[in-house]
Design a protein that fits this description.
By secondary structure, this protein is an all-alpha fold. The protein has one domain.
Length: 125
């Protein structure tokens, strides 16, 4: 039964990741809250699962000519540097604090999403 729940968590994360919404936004809470996976392990699982999902999504987006290559190396290098720094920082934080930081991040992200949706809502005439 556990395998089924892990499979469903992976499908949920994969679908959102493929749409560009960030599968970890769903995958990490599912793993931690619903499946009892420790926070650090859930984040590691998310990072590992992201690689094949990103490769598939990138191939599809390149094929559909949805990838703009100007400034790409700046984004890649800054992403690699900040990712490395984030890994070292996360290693030094206990699981409870990491869980609270991630929860705060999701809360702020949700508020921005709602505000953006309200602001960009089409007006009826």
């Amino acid at each position: 039964m556990d395998r089924l729940w892990f499979c469903l968590a992976g499908i949920s994360g994969g679908l959102l990741g493929g749409m560009g919404m960030g599968g970890g936004t769903v995958l990490i809470p599912l793993l931690v809250i619903m499946l009892g996976v420790p926070q650090h392990l859930a984040q590691a699982i998310n990072l590992i699962s992201f690689v094949p999902m990103a490769v598939v999504a990138l191939i599809i987006h390149v094929k559909n000519r949805l990838v703009k290559t100007s400034g790409l190396w700046i984004i890649i290098l800054s992403g690699l540097l900040s990712c490395t720094a984030g890994c070292f920082i996360a290693r030094g934080i206990n699981a409870e604090a990491l869980r609270r930081i991630f929860g705060g991040f999701l809360t702020v992200l949700s508020v921005f999403q709602v505000c953006s949706a309200v602001r960009n809502k089409p007006h009826k005439k």
